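User: These chains co-purify. Model them together.
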Amino acid sequence: MNQRIPVTELASDFKGRAREALADSQLRSNFRTAMDSLMRKRADAFSDADEREGLRELGNRIRARSLSNLPDLLEELETRLTANGIKVHWAETVEEANEIVHGIIEAHDGRQVVKGKSMVSEEMEMNDYLADRDIECLESDMGEYIVQLDGEKPSHIIMPAIHKNARQVSALFNEKLGEHVSEDVDELIQTGRRILRRKFLEADVGVSGVNFAIAETGTLLLVENEGNGRMSTTSPPVHIAVTGIEKVVSNLRDVVPLVSLLTRSALGQPITTYINMISGPRKPDELDGPEEVHLVLLDNGRTGAFADAQMRQTLNCIRCGACMNHCPVYTRVGGHTYGEVYPGPIGKIVTPHMVGLDKVPDHPSASSLCGACGEVCPVKIPIPELLQRLRQENVQAPDHQPAAVKGAGSKYSRKERMVWRTWVMLNTRPSLYKLFLWGATRFRALAPKKVGPWTENHSAPVPAARSLHDLARDHLKNPPNGRAGS
Amino acid sequence: MSELFYDAAPNATRVAPARETERHYPDKPSEVSLFGTCVVDLFFPEAGLDAIRLLEQQGIRVHFPQQQSCCGQPAWTSGYREEARAVALAQLDLLDDGRPVVVPSGSCAGMFRHHYRELFADEPDNLRRAEDLAERTFELTEFLLKVCKVQLVDRGAKHRIALHTSCTARREMNTHLHARELLAQLDNVERVDHDHESECCGFGGTFSIRMPDISGAMVLDKTTALRQSGAAEAISADCGCLMNINGALEKQQHAFRGRHLASFLWERCGERQPGGEQ
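Assistant: Joint model of the two components:
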């Protein structure tokens, strides 16, 4: 198995990666096609606007209630899970989480791990960590399997290989698996499945993510379409689930609307093929299931976001990917451009809490604030508002009181602040503003032909011969029907 | 996931439905103030003047406070909250006379209606004034349609246009259907749809300067869709978008252009003597 190349090492920065992605016409066409399809599917799945808005409101309330009660719910969850025979582990950092997972595998002399799709394990870069310790961790979600085979990382949180089309997948299979596979999607899927089936039986440990952890019953709920999640959580003798601490909800009733929102927002499905509810290891009279079940609860910056009333809303996310599907920026550059585990609009607001805003300083600016992400978010996270907030944190002066967001202030520039100060003077002193208008209109012929980056894609804007201030004053001096304006 | 490989969406036009919680509108007032916006002021002054003419045609006395400048949005969206607040305060002082304020731009109207509250959240007196301004602020198409209840009489020849709605009209002001309704009143104007109509044109204020490559890709797609729609020109109620779209079209050396809705309406319906409620 290839060692995976971290995307962050492929190119220097967000803007550079964006330029490369924009130059890749195949990539752009793949994303446009896929995102258009996903947008239409979501629209079809929510054909009743009233029902959709009611459900989003409910989803928001459930998530907000869960978070407002997070410490208590986590305690309740631990108590219930433990009573059900599931071993609970707490990790503050990804290093700790990896050590815990490795420790469990070692305790069973495990060498082969099969994994259902999990974004938190991506956050932990668990595959690399285990590979360094001679443990093979095979991705069993078809999309994840494809990107793993290609030494890449997922470009979408729901559809990891969405950036590739069938022709590219067929070429990849032919190259890496050494057998001829056509471009027929069914044949591609069957080929992948055949290989994975064997792995499920051979694996020592299965790893999965968690969509919702239910405190009241001590249940781990897992939504999936391919059955690989069910295989990797039941076939190997040991199951390790990894999840962020925010995924906890109070009771079973909470998950019904959340699952409906999740599946409809993600792929436009009324429900997924499989909903796994894991409430403990195999009992003596049961035929299948693992003998041991572990849950690793990861913080990785989440408590930092939790501490800030506005940023706490980032933790509402149920990882449906709808914001990326509808984002005009994501659609054009794809997930790898973001260089982090969570791409798209949601990635821009959750990643700073995990890695620090100084590591992803361009993310908050990489949005036209068009609002499409906020409009489709199933739990009504005000993503544009939070991006705005992060922009403020970004340009904070270094001597500003304790930063609310890790790594704030890295985009502070004395020069840029001076530009805005000048702009304030111009726009708060009417005589100065009018002088500016007078100069700009009178000397319009002298307007520069190149205006920074603007003229890369536009001709330079030329001021009008007379400003609206002038036109309006003259017009209102001699108003129709003798009515004088001010 | 398998079918996704093949299942490309048709070039469907997606238009968000109007939201259920519609704003309560007052009766038509006798006087309003026009807030021109800085982009209109310098680059599209005719659009501002045509907005004034359209309002006068409805028998409304229009004031144009000469001390006005910018709503503060460029600093606000760039993260410069204090700077945005200082400029916002100047406009708040200026527009404090209780008159309705009409704005020929969804994004600047949205700034008044939504973001001034955030800027003055910690200042009770200014917050009260900001909330009052928000209540009195109307985007031009909204004001013509919902407050003036205009009945437009089309005097122009047959014409095909494509409508570009701004993201703020769509998602912040809920006024994206108003321009459609106004245009539908024009007998000789056919509105044609274009691909990805609901998608951002790539302007986003300083976004177009900070991320020129991504913004450039977005505006290229937008201008291509507009040109291929079969329309003779594009109409929009937002001059920010128009500056972006027209600037790109000029750079691409296409003759196709966008125009502000106020200018379009005045050209087609403005020949009547003003003052004319029928």
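The CA atoms of residues 46 and 166 of chain B lie 19 Å apart.
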